[in-house]
């Protein structure tokens, strides 16, 4: 039995040595040297992995930049609203104070104090 296996293995090895050029032509990605094929596969995997990581990082950075821009716009809009409300409050306060001052008559106020005191 071992003799038969030895003969078959010998034929396969001898055939591989004789037809190694034809094997390379028929299967260019599979070289006669397993180590070269493995090196190519590892380098291809490494380049694909690094490209994938770069794309994910770029996408993440783009998303962060977009969100930062959105937050910046929201802060600006909130600041503008606050500024407008403060200026409106200042204007309405100024109008109210001007109305009160224009309606204020110090002589009548003093007169009302004495009239109220004298009647009581």
Question: How big a fraction of the residues is strand?
Answer: under 5%
Arithmetic mean pLDDT:
80
Q: Could you name the ranges where pLDDT drops below 50 across 5 or more consecutive residues? A: none
Class by helix and strand content?
Answer: mainly alpha
Distance from first to last alpha carbon? 139 Å
Note the total helix count. Answer: 4
Tell the overall outline: rod-shaped
Q: What does the radius of gyration come to?
A: 46 Å
What kind of assembly state do the chains in view correspond to?
Answer: single chain
Helix content: over 70%
Total beta strand runs: 0
- What is the ordering of alpha helices and beta strands? HHHH
Describe what you observe in this structure.
- 0% of the residues are buried.
- The radius of gyration is 46 Å and the shape is rod-shaped.
- The protein is built from 4 helices and no strands.
- The longest helix is centred in the middle third of the chain and has 70 residues, at 34-103.
- Helix content is 90%, strand content 0%.
Please summarize what this structure is.
The chain has 120 residues and is mostly helical. The chain is built from 4 helices and no strands.
């Amino acid at each position: 039995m071992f003799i038969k296996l030895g003969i078959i293995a010998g034929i396969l090895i001898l055939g591989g040595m004789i037809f190694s050029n034809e094997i390379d032509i028929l299967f260019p990605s599979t070289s006669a040297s397993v180590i070269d094929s493995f090196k190519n596969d590892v380098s291809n995997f490494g380049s694909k992995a690094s490209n994938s990581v770069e794309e994910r990082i770029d996408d993440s950075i783009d998303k962060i930049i977009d969100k930062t821009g959105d937050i910046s716009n929201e802060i600006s809009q909130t600041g503008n609203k606050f500024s407008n409300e403060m200026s409106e409050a200042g204007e309405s306060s100024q109008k109210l104070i001007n109305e009160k001052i224009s309606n204020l008559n110090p002589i009548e106020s003093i007169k009302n104090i004495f009239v109220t005191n004298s009647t009581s």
